[in-house]
Design goal:
The complex is a heterodimer of chains A (about 350) and B (about 250). Chain A has 9 helices and 19 strands. Chain A has helices at about 40-50, 90-100, 105-120, 135-145, 165-180, 195-200, 215-220, 225-230, 345-350; strands at about 5-10, 15-25, 30-35, 55-60, 65, 75-80, 155, 185-190, 200-205, 210-215, 235-240, 260, 265-270, 280-290, 295-300, 305-310, 325-330, 330-335, 340-345. In chain A, strand 1 (about 5-10) and strand 2 (about 15-25) form a beta hairpin. Chain B is about 80% helix and about 0% strand. Chain B has 2 domains: about 1-30; about 40-250, MetI-like fold, CATH 1.10.3720. Chain B has helices at about 1-15, 15-30, 40-55, 55-85, 90-100, 110-120, 120-145, 150-160, 165-200, 205-210, 220-250. The longest helix of chain B has about 40 residues, at about 165-200. Classes of the chains: A alpha+beta (about 350), B mainly alpha (about 250). The interface between A and B is medium-sized, with 26 and 21 residues. Chain A: This is ABC-type quaternary amine transporter. Chain A: GO terms for molecular function: ABC-type quaternary ammonium compound transporting activity; ABC-type sulfate transporter activity; ATP binding; ATP hydrolysis activity. Chain A: Its EC number is 7.6.2.9.
Chain lengths: ~350, ~250
């Protein structure tokens, strides 16, 4: 493994930021550290960079133990959440900063800065100061600057957090393409699931200082291994006390009284729909609707349970108070530690497409 | 539109303040004798006398050269020391108690001692200004160093910068706006201090002029001296701000 964290522990005062963290990352992968705030994801990134030091445990980069190696010599590039560009230096000088430390020749620096500016799409802006750039442009400069020293690993701390929604989407795609092109092993921190799923090859889910699950986005969405992941990923509704038994096609999973159901697992059809289509349909009532741009989120009431369903507007008009039919394709039953994927038993025989 | 613009400009220029001041002064002077409160015209006459006789120029020159010497020496000492105190723990342990004690003791309190130690000549006045300048400069420099955005330091280090390099390329440049504020405050302390010092122990200078004018019942000269001081301070600060904006703009000096 290219990057390895072994039994890492770290506390700040009484706060356990890392609790026996074990992570392995392959070379060339783009990995997201995903978790709620305070879950210790940034701490992991900073320890990897050498900006923070673990209380115990070992960190390896490229099979080399780097515990005692200071940030200056770790060969990492770090992109800060607030960009951390030097405001008193031009874009050119910001990018050249690390190369000057390495005593590169003027020509070498010149051509490298040019190359990087072109790479990040900011050609000709070298003479500007950071405050003359937009947020997205600053982020690109920060990215170019981190790459200028040709690091073995690129670390990004909430790289899109300070950028407005529209630009963020473009920038995500841009970053993913860029990193794939360069083939540099990269790890970024985020609390935004969409961002993590869209950008990363692999997710590391953290919670309360622990690593909950590591895997590809599809794997983590389809097969959450822990109770936390089942609830955290997706916009789930949580049912307690085996309430999920009331749903057609599901039976009790002993020891797992709770269930997480995502809107995309709930399928809604018009009440006049062909009931014979499947015996898995149950009658429900829409108690709330929320417009989501290209789709709607319906809140459905059924025997005292409230579920959320994703509904395509084109299918049929749905409004508050309507009676509809719905089925649940799958859910995650879980106890305090483990999560189990339950697939609707009625539908098992004639499997349908599952949404991820 | 045009008229509005002109009114706006006049308002912003601070002209109104001066017109108001002159008006109040003129009206006030109607009720008193010129010895007690000379009106603006008498004061202007007095100033003319001082200018034509050359005294005013000499006094300005003498005072300002003292200010310049003490101020420059003060900056040369206080900025590096402030940077060290702000940046290095050991320096803050050594200097800060001293700093926090003496910055509450005004320079005037030291006049007698400085006269005793440095003599009645220039040295004692320059030393006094030096003393008055170093505190505002140091306090602001230290504040500047301590308010440096920590992520800038981490960014520099992540690119391989040593502590030393980080100090010179990140900490110092980031502290420049605060240091500059200190420099400006230092100049005003210097001017305040030199006048007080010249009143007590000098044979030339604006402070001396203001103080000795009472011996000749020349209240108008006192007024002329006061205005000269205010004007010099104002112009010096304007010049400093202009230079700061011109040369230190990129560091955030506005």
């Amino acid at each position: 493994m290219y990057i390895k964290l072994e039994n890492i522990n770290k506390t700040f005062g009484n706060f356990k930021a890392s609790n026996n963290v074990n992570i392995e990352i392959e070379k060339g992968k783009l990995v997201a550290l995903l978790g709620p705030s305070g879950s210790g994801k940034t701490t992991i990134l900073r320890m990897l960079a050498g900006l923070e030091h673990q209380d115990s445990g070992d960190i390896y980069i490229d099979e080399k133990l780097v515990n005692g190696i200071p940030v200056q010599d770790r060969g990492i590039g770090f992109v800060f959440q607030s960009y951390a560009l030097f405001p008193y230096l031009t874009v050119y000088d910001n990018i050249a900063y690390g190369m000057k430390i390495r005593k590169k020749s003027k020509d070498e620096i010149d051509s490298k800065v040019e190359e990087l500016l072109e790479l990040v799409g900011l050609k000709g802006l070298g003479k500007r100061f950071p405050d003359q750039l937009s947020g997205g442009q600053r982020q690109r400069v920060a990215f170019a600057r981190a790459l200028a020293t040709e690091p073995q690993v690129l670390l990004l701390d909430e790289p899109f957090a300070a950028i407005d929604a529209k630009v963020r989407k473009d920038l995500r795609r841009w970053l993913k393409e860029m990193i794939e092109k360069l083939g540099i092993t990269s790890i970024f921190v985020t609390h935004d699931q969409d961002e993590a799923v869209e950008v990363a090859d692999e997710l590391i889910i953290t919670n309360e200082g622990k690593v909950e699950q590591i895997g590809t986005p599809v794997d983590i969405y389809r097969n959450p291994k822990t109770a936390f992941v089942a609830q955290f990923i997706g916009d789930s509704v949580i049912l307690e006390d085996y309430e999920y038994e009331k749903l057609k096609g599901f039976t009790r999973q002993e020891g797992a009284p709770k269930a997480a159901i995502r809107p995309e697992f709930v399928n809604v059809i018009h009440s006049s729909g062909n009931k014979e289509q499947s015996s898995a349909y149950m009658p429900g009532k829409i108690v709330h609707t929320e417009f989501r741009g290209n789709s709607m989120e319906l809140t459905i009431e059924y025997e005292g349970i409230e579920l959320k369903a994703a509904h395509q507007i084109d299918d049929f008009q749905a409004k508050k108070g309507d009676d509809i039919l719905f089925k649940v394709t799958r859910l995650y039953a879980f106890d305090d530690d483990n999560a189990y994927t339950l697939i609707n038993e009625i539908l098992k025989d004639n499997p349908e497409m599952y949404y991820i | 539109m045009e008229i509005k613009k002109i009114i706006n400009r006049v308002l912003k220029s601070g002209l109104i303040t001066w017109v108001l001041l002159l008006a109040i002064w003129s009206i006030g002077s109607l009720f008193y004798t010129p010895d007690f409160l000379p009106n603006p015209i008498i004061t202007l006459d007095g100033a003319k006398t001082l200018v034509t006789s050359g005294t005013l120029w000499t006094d300005i020159f003498v005072s300002m050269s003292r200010v310049l010497k003490g101020w420059t020496a003060g900056l040369l000492f206080a900025i590096p020391v402030g940077l060290c105190v702000g940046n290095f723990k050991w320096a803050s342990y050594v200097f800060e108690p001293f700093l926090n004690f003496f910055r509450f003791v005004p320079a005037i309190g030291f006049i007698t001692l400085f006269l005793l130690w440095f003599g009645v000549e220039e040295k004692s006045k320059v030393a006094l200004i030096f003393y008055a300048v170093i505190f505002p400069v140091m306090v602001n420099t230290i504040a500047g160093v301590r308010s440096v955005d920590h992520s800038l330091i981490e960014a520099a280090e992540s690119m391989g910068a040593s502590k030393r390099r980080t100090f010179f390329t990140v900490v110092f440049p980031s502290a420049i706006p605060n240091i500059f504020t200190g420099v400006r405050l230092g100049l005003s302390s210097a001017i305040i201090c030199i006048v007080a010092a010249e009143m007590l122990a000098a044979s030339e200078g604006l402070g001396y002029l203001i103080y000795t004018s009472r011996l000749f019942y020349r209240t108008d000269w006192i007024f002329a001296g006061i205005f000269t001081l205010g004007l010099i301070g104002l112009l010096a600060d304007m010049l400093l701000r202009f230079l700061g904006k011109k040369f230190l703009y990129r560091f955030g000096v506005r």
